Amino acid sequence: MAIRIGTLLPGAIDLGIGVNKARRGFARMQDGSEPVVIVKRVSTSVLACELFCSVLARDCGLPCPEPVVILDSLIGSILFGSVYTEHPNLLQAFQVDESLVSAQELNEIAKRLNEWTQLGEVISFDEWIANADRNLQNILWDGFDSFVLIDHGICLGSTPGNGQCENKLLALMTWHFTQTNSAAIERLKNRVINAIANLDPSMTAQAADALAVGPLTNGAELGSQFSTFLSLRYPQLAALLVARFPSAQGELFGRA
Questions:
Q1: Tens-place pLDDT, residues 213-245
Q2: Which one of 22, 28, 32, 134 is at 20 to 30 Å from 186 when CA atoms are compared?
Q3: Contacts of 226 (CB under 8 A, 6+ apart)
Q4: Is residue 38 located within the same domain as residue 134?
């Protein structure tokens, strides 16, 4: 997919969410449309990571908002943007304060996530891109059957350890099942491992091409770097994921 480019229109409002001070407003795109977008000012490397992972997720059939590049003429800066999705994040949907979330509340959220047909695909995708930040604020939910994935700026080996980060969604689910239904852990493992087959390594080239023709001067270089990282990581996915599951009944993972 081609990454659309636009200009932020006056009147964007601060959402008060996230360290990057996300804003919501209208943008005038080069194709003449004026969608509502969520924008945030990030470094060039994070912008590239967000764009690449969003394109790849969408190409892999995962629910992710359309990524866009937005010029804020007031500050003379390029922003990462995504077309607005009118869903709250999971903590907002369950009316949970991030600093006060209880084990009972986490279990209720995990129960609902377990009903998500694409849960296995998202866990395996997060492992592939080495997503260090799939916390519950980075999954939007409409209260029914629609989930949306956002925030992919801390992926692709951008954290210390070259991808050796916690798979937070898998950690939450294994923690949940260890307390409530340990037999379900094996079923979750099968879902996750089987989902690897739905990830297509050839799609990294498409994401790299989208980055190369975008507005970033080093987009081609970064796209090639990201593709290489994923190509090397893909054959290890099954082993990486199996290693994250409890090796014995009663072993716990940390909370998301």
A1: 888 899 999 999 999 999 999 999 999 999 999
A2: 134
A3: 48, 49, 52, 156, 204, 207, 208, 211
A4: no
